[in-house]
Amino acid sequence: MIRRMKPSDLMEIEQIEKRSFSSKWQKEHFLYELSENDYAYLYVVEVNGRVVAYIDFWITFDICQLASIAVHPAFRRAGHAHALMQQMISDAINANCDNISLEVRISNLPAQKLYESFGFMQVNVRKGYYSDNQEDALLLVKPLGVMINE
C-alpha cells in the first residue's frame, strides 16, 4: 500500500537509508522535508504494517525533481520502486509539470535500468557530484509536457 510518509515512519526510513546508501540522509533532513518544505512530496510503501520503501520528490512550478527513492534490500524486486515511480509521475502530470529530473550514480546500474524503463533519458554528467566518494552522476530527464506549435 502506498501512502503519505509520516514522522512516525522515520525510524524505519533510517534503516532503509543505512542499508541502501553510502551517503545517507539524516532523520532531521526527512523531518525538514515533512514539516517545512512546501514543495516536497513523500510517500512510503507499507507491507504488513512495515515501511519497506519510500520516495521523496519536489514539485516546483512546472518541474519535478526526484530527491530520493529507496527500497529495503529484503523487499527489492517486488515492484515497490516501480509503484513509487508511477506515483511520482502521476503527481507530476497532475501538477502540469513539463518534466521530471534526477541524478543517479554512474555505478548504480539497477536504478538506471528502472529509470530508463520509465523513459528517462541521459542529458548530462555531473562530475564529482557525490560528496562521499566524488563519483559522477548521470542527469536524467523524462519529458512530460506537450509541445504546442502556435
UniProtKB/TrEMBL annotation:
<comment type="similarity">
    <text>Belongs to the acetyltransferase family. RimI subfamily.</text>
</comment>
<keyword id="KW-0687">Ribonucleoprotein</keyword>
<dbReference type="Pfam" id="PF00583">
    <property type="entry name" value="Acetyltransf_1"/>
</dbReference>
<keyword id="KW-0689">Ribosomal protein</keyword>
<dbReference type="InterPro" id="IPR050276">
    <property type="entry name" value="MshD_Acetyltransferase"/>
</dbReference>
<dbReference type="InterPro" id="IPR006464">
    <property type="entry name" value="AcTrfase_RimI/Ard1"/>
</dbReference>
<keyword id="KW-0012">Acyltransferase</keyword>
<feature type="domain" description="N-acetyltransferase">
    <location>
        <begin position="1"/>
        <end position="145"/>
    </location>
</feature>
<keyword id="KW-0963">Cytoplasm</keyword>
<dbReference type="InterPro" id="IPR016181">
    <property type="entry name" value="Acyl_CoA_acyltransferase"/>
</dbReference>
<keyword id="KW-0808">Transferase</keyword>
<dbReference type="GO" id="GO:0008999">
    <property type="term" value="F:protein-N-terminal-alanine acetyltransferase activity"/>
</dbReference>
<protein>
    <recommendedName>
        <fullName>[Ribosomal protein bS18]-alanine N-acetyltransferase</fullName>
        <ecNumber>2.3.1.266</ecNumber>
    </recommendedName>
</protein>
<comment type="function">
    <text>Acetylates the N-terminal alanine of ribosomal protein bS18.</text>
</comment>
<dbReference type="GO" id="GO:0005840">
    <property type="term" value="C:ribosome"/>
</dbReference>
<dbReference type="InterPro" id="IPR000182">
    <property type="entry name" value="GNAT_dom"/>
</dbReference>
